[in-house]
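Customer escalation, tier 2.

The customer says the design service returned an amino acid string that "doesn't look like it belongs to this structure." They asked us to rerun it and document both sides in this ticket. The original structure tokens are below, unchanged.
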């Protein structure tokens, strides 16, 4: 029996915990719901690859504008060579390459979503 000491609260409406878990079936997608196999995504992927192909030469052009080579002739000695880096052009080149990389990753994702189909549901074998 429970201890009926003063100052202790008696819980009368508490029930024992249940160990059963409710299984909620996965709802079937409706007719207007998006599906995994969407061939239209292939066009998006192609557009992104074309954009990447345009961004890479832009990044190279920015990088070349950001690196300047100077040569100072000195009598009776080899010329003094110097390289100057312009941060704004180097930074722009890095930013363009980063955007191109993200677009390339998204193009791969779009391609996978365009060609992949949903597999069949696994049917559990009844235990004998």
């Amino acid at each position: 029996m429970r201890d009926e000491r003063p100052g202790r609260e008696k819980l009368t409406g508490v029930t024992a915990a249940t160990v059963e878990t409710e299984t909620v079936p996965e709802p079937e997608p409706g007719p207007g719901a998006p599906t995994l196999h969407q061939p239209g995504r292939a066009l998006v992927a192609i557009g992104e690859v074309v954009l990447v192909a345009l961004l890479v030469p832009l990044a190279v052009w920015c990088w070349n504008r950001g690196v300047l080579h100077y040569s100072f002739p000195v009598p009776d000695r080899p010329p003094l060579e110097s390289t100057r880096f312009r941060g704004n052009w180097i930074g722009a080149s890095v930013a363009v390459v980063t955007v191109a990389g993200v677009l390339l990753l998204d193009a791969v994702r779009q391609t996978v979503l365009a060609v992949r189909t949903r597999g069949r549901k696994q049917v559990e074998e009844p235990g004998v």
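Tier 2 assessment: The sequence is consistent with the input. The mean pLDDT is 84. Residues 62 and 107 are 24 Å apart (CA to CA). Sent an explanation to the customer and offered a walkthrough call.
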